[in-house]
Specification:
Number of helices: 3
Protein name: DNA-binding protein HU-beta
Structural class: alpha+beta
Strand order of the largest sheet: 1-2-5
Distance between the termini: 18 Å
Pfam families: Bac_DNA_binding (PF00216)
CATH class: Few Secondary Structures
GO molecular function, one term: structural constituent of chromatin
CATH topology: HU Protein, Chain A
Shape: elongated
GO biological process, one term: chromosome condensation
Number of domains: 1
Order of helices and strands: HHEEEEEH
Helix content: 40-55%
Radius of gyration: 19 Å
Oligomer: single chain
CATH superfamily: IHF-like DNA-binding proteins
Number of strands: 5
Keywords: DNA condensation, DNA-binding
């Protein structure tokens, strides 16, 4: 499922136009993104939790040349599914 499929599904389930459903989906994504930028956790009970994790800087190796390369520190997004979502998928 891609974003347009999600928008169509939301529009169908809520009797909204596709344009309004697009606004709603975009607003949800923007709210999650904003919270993660502020290092806040987004907990959606039953669905899951979005959070951030810090990765330390390190040394890697280029597989082609064997040359060592520096890997900078970074922040990544993590998602931990909730029990309801896990049970629905199993």
């Amino acid at each position: 499922m891609n974003k347009m499929d999600l928008v169509a599904d939301v529009a169908e389930q809520t009797d909204l136009s596709k344009a309004k459903a697009t606004e709603v989906v975009d607003a949800v994504f923007a709210a999650i993104e904003s919270a993660l930028k502020q290092k806040q956790e987004v907990r959606l009970v039953g669905f899951g939790t979005f959070g951030t994790a810090e990765r330390k800087a390190g040394i890697g190796r280029n597989p082609r040349t064997g040359e060592e390369i520096k890997i900078p520190a970074s922040t990544s997004v993590r998602f931990k599914p909730g029990k309801t979502l896990k049970d629905a998928v199993n």
